[in-house]
Amino acid sequence: LLNDITSGRVCFALWGPRSREILGRLTPSPLEDSAFKFMTAQEVTVADVPVRALRVTFVGERGWELYTSREYGAALGSAPGDEGPWRVRPCRSTPWNPPPAQCKFST
User: Cα-atom radius of gyration of the chain, to the nearest Å?
Assistant: First the structure.
């Protein structure tokens, strides 16, 4: 029996040359290449939010996709904050509504 859980999940993607540094400030889990290999998934916490993290990239840089229950979406989305030596900007897209060219995560 399959259950469609799509509407109950959210996904955040964090990619770029400083993604490990940013994510490392938000999780106690080890993120080194030897501990979290490319194209693998692990159950971790990010800013005290339970997350299934996938080490993937579609932009040619190191990155993670972070999946959690919809109830934790706001907490996970605001976790990086505006502080620190980075600037994280949110992007939203769907297959029918691609993000504009200027929408990106920048460091």
Answer: 14
If we measure between CA atoms, which residue out of 53, 61, 55 comes closest to residue 15? 61
Strand ordering across the sheet containing 63-69 = 9-15, 63-69, 49-55, 41-46
- Cα torsion at 72, 5, 20, 99 (round to 10°)? -90
Q: What is the pLDDT of residues 19-46, one digit of tens each?
A: 898 899 899 999 999 999 999 999 999 9
Residue 52's nearest CA partner among 39, 62, 66, 63 is 66
pTM of the model: 0.74
